[in-house]
Amino acid sequence: MRTSLRLAIILVIFSDHALAAKGKKDAAKAPARTMDANDPAEKEQSEKKAAEVKPETAAELEQKQIQADAAEVAKRRAADKVGVFGNVLIGFGKAPEPGPGADEATGKTTSATFMVGGFYDLSPELTLGVRLPWTVGSARQLDGDRASVQALGTLQVVGEYRMTLSPFTRLPIFFGLGLPTAQGGYGDDGGVRQMELNLVADAASGYRDPELFGPKRLPLIAGVGLDYQRKALSVRAATKFVLGVKLGGTLDPARYPSVGGSYELKAVTFRNVTLAGLSYEFLDKPRLFGALDSWIAYSAINAVEFNSNQGASAPTRFQVVFEPRIGAHFAKISPSIGYIFPIGGRLAGTSSTGLELHCDVAF
């Protein structure tokens, strides 16, 4: 019995030593851990760390979207330093004239106003531009015949300074003057026809640019606007004031008889034009857009005013006009087409409308 017990103790001690030696041998054979990214243990640790990263909040996502939109707007607004344009305005109808009746107007005329111009960026904020119109037309005379005539408009020089209010909003301030190159007069017959043609061109444009069509006038222009653009949407508004200083000319008594009142050639003319519009680019390649502009023209003082001595009310001095447009941007060339039509007012009464074709070319 004692012999068996001693044998058992010896076997247990031997087994412990054998197991300890085997453990040391296995530990020596086990490979050392490395920083290999393919190691399963390392992958597990990386996944745990990635899971611990907090997701972006709604405010952070919105801020990133705003920054992306601002970068896109800056890209779209990036203008070339130099550009030129051509514009053709085909006019139909009559042009209102002063007189005792609301139906006083020129003969029915088909006209085409060709205008060229360009701009140059003196700095990213300041731009200088010029434009000059020339109109040809065929007017119906009192005897039923048609007479062709042509008339040069006013050479206009304008500057625009842009203040940045936000990544999406700018405040343009513009100012300018015109050189008195517009042809026409109120005395001799030839001058009267050219004056009437410039009246027709002014009416066909919806009274939008009075500084371009006043014979023997020095126009002074000042205005301010607001331009908002985000993604494919652009919203704009502007108001301008045009003062035309008389440089000469007299009224022909035969053309302006004192019947029911008197006519007066004003020393200054004054008109305010307030515009609002929007456009949306509904395709990226090519960049096709649709636009709608609307403006209100208020002619406070016309070149020739009729003063009634019979108490007759004068025609309205307000005019509301709409112009829907479509166009595209092809690299450096941007064509568009629009149709100008009045709502109410004297222009609607004379059926005066205009088809406008425009093209910008940048360098």
- CA-atom Rg in angstroms: 39 Å
CATH topology: Porin
Low-pLDDT stretches: 1-5, 7-15, 17-35
CATH superfamily: monomeric porin ompg
Report strand %.
over 45%
Strand order of the largest sheet: 1-2-3-5-6-7-8-10-11-13-14-15
Order of helices and strands: HHHEEEEEEHEEEEEEEEHE
What's the β-strand tally? Answer: 15
The CATH class is: Mainly Beta
Tally of DSSP helical segments? 5
Count of spatially separate domains: 1
Shape: elongated
CA-to-CA gap between the ends?
Answer: 114 Å
Sheet with the most strands, sense and barrel status: 12 strands, antiparallel, barrel
Overall average pLDDT: 84
How would you characterize this protein structure?
The chain has 363 residues and is α+β, with helices and mostly antiparallel strands. It has a single domain, classed as monomeric porin ompg (Porin). 23% of the residues lie in helices and 47% in strands. The protein contains five helices and 15 strands. The protein has helices at 2-29, 40-52, 58-77, 189-204, 345-349, and strands at 82-93, 109-121, 126-140, 146-152, 155-166, 169-179, 217-230, 233-246, 261-265, 268-281, 287-301, 304-308, 318-329, 333-343, 353-362. The strands form two sheets. It has a twelve-stranded antiparallel barrel. A two-stranded antiparallel sheet has the order 9-12. A hairpin with a 4-residue loop joins strand 2 (109-121) and strand 3. It is elongated, with a radius of gyration of 39 Å. The termini are far apart. Mean pLDDT is 84; it is low at 1-5, 7-15 and 17-35.
